[in-house]
């Protein structure tokens, strides 16, 4: 499981020119799954995201978590996090988990995340337009 985390001032996701998810201050999560992923990886990465100290404290030091600052989550499914472009110029996605299994894990991930923090999502397998105002910019890759 991989999550690309971006600290955001405001972000949104649209499908067919309709906004289906949006947040103000918080984190945008691009979430991908691979073979062997399970709830164990989900639990680990939910905890990691919630406790990741990448928000500024009163001294301007990245020392606060999303829970500390009262932010929101925008979670977007992203199978291309498992792209392999080591051979040729056309990426292979064979390391990405099959969509039916990935959909179930993605839903579980979002359910668990929403138990702790307001979580908005895109639509799994939809053609989405994601608008991210990256704050910092801060972008971190988490993997388990």
Give the amount of beta strand, in percent.
Answer: 35-45%
In total, how many beta strands? 8
* Average pLDDT taken over every residue: 97
Largest β sheet strand count, sense and barrel closure: 6 strands, mixed
Mass-distribution shape? globular
Low-confidence stretches: none
- What is the terminal-to-terminal distance? 5 Å
Order of helices and strands: EEEHEEHEHEE
The helix-and-strand class reads: alpha/beta
The count of helical stretches stands at 3
CA radius of gyration:
15 Å
Helix content: 10-25%
Q: In words, what does this structure look like?
A:
The protein has 144 residues and is of the alpha/beta class. The protein is built from three helices and eight strands. It has helices at 39-51, 66-69, 99-114; strands at residues 2-15, 18-23, 26-32, 55-56, 62-64, 72-77, 119-121, 128-143. Strands 1, 2, 3, 6, 7 and 8 form a six-stranded mixed β-sheet that branches. Strands 4-5 form a two-stranded antiparallel ribbon. A hairpin with a 2-residue loop joins strand 1 (2-15) and strand 2 (18-23). Helix 1 (39-51) packs across helix 3 (99-114). The N and C termini lie close together (5 Å). The model has no long low-confidence stretch (mean pLDDT 97).
């Amino acid at each position: 499981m991989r999550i690309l985390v971006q600290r955001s001032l405001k972000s949104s996701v649209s499908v067919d020119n309709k906004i289906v998810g949006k947040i103000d201050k918080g984190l945008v999560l691009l979430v991908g799954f691979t073979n062997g992923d399970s709830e164990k990886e989900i639990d680990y990465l939910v905890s990691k995201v919630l406790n990741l100290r990448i928000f500024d404290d009163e001294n301007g030091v990245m020392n606060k978590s999303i829970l500390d600052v009262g932010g929101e989550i925008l979670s977007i499914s992203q199978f291309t996090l498992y792209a392999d472009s080591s051979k040729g110029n056309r990426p292979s996605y064979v390391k990405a988990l099959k969509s039916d299994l990935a959909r179930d894990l993605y839903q579980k991930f979002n359910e668990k995340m929403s138990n702790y923090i307001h979580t908005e999502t895109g639509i799994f397998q939809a053609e989405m337009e994601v608008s991210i105002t990256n704050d910092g910019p801060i972008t971190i890759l988490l993997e388990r």
